[in-house]
Amino acid sequence: MILISVARVPLYCQYRRHEKDIAHCERWGLYFAAMAALQGSLYGVAWFAFVPGGDQFFLSVVCLWVMGLSACAVVGYAAHPKTLLSFFAPVVVPGTVLLLMDGSERMQILAAALFLYGVVILLAAAPVYRSIVQSIELNLRLRELSEKDGLTGLANRRHFDETLQKELDRALRNEQPLSLLLLDIDHFKAYNDHYGHVSGDHCLRLVSDAIAGCVRRSGELLARYGGEEFALLLPNTDKTQLAATVERLQAAIRESAIPHAGRPDRLEQITVSIGGTTVERDYPANPESLIENADTALYMAKNHGRNQYYFYCRRSGQLAAEEPLAVAIA
What we know:
Its cofactor is Mg(2+). By secondary structure, the protein is of the alpha/beta class.
């Protein structure tokens, strides 16, 4: 019994490391149920191992012990009904059979009582299970509300900031690149003035959907960073890969063809200005500087005609526009 309990420890540790992996959690649930069944079987053997010659007194004592044990199991296993059943059945069934085999009226009554008690225990576990599930669903819902933007359904700034810190720590630890894009809808105030704020909200949703369609890899995070500004975090993405991502984003916005008749220029459709930066191995950074660098590039894009992409990198001692797609900075 001690060995089984010890064997559960590495399983639990492995589960904690991969608890966000659904497939792994399902496998862990099967392992946990198997361990519970093995433990229940050992308790079931106790009926035969600790009752000398079918002594009725010892049978009664073991029966009471099993009843108490099964009641405790409800607390421990109610969150996983299959595990509860896999533990409970090997404990109760052998005892019920052994009591019936005794032949005496008293033991048969005790067998019936044990069986009915088992049914009651399983029925009692059902509301506990529902309560646990409802609590988990509520917590997940609250977490979702705290992490998502209500208008677009994207991650909100709070969730983005938390993820940025984690991904930056991981990138520096593993010596991997980490890229960040800030995107701003061009002339969005003019859009609201021309079409109204309800249409403006609809425009934000359309733009967010277009950008989200370009988020392809696991770990990439798109967030509404504020107002008409979006942030896209791209782990393990270097400058070259970032440029390819920007091309897809610009193409997606063009293909969405969202009308914007209120623009002061002649484009008459929604466009975005984009600023980007990348953390390389020799580029120590913190979340604040990373955002500041991307924002600097975005500012350059907006001040050089909009509908452009500027990239912030460390090269020279001054801010200089090398090409329409690049900004170099030390």
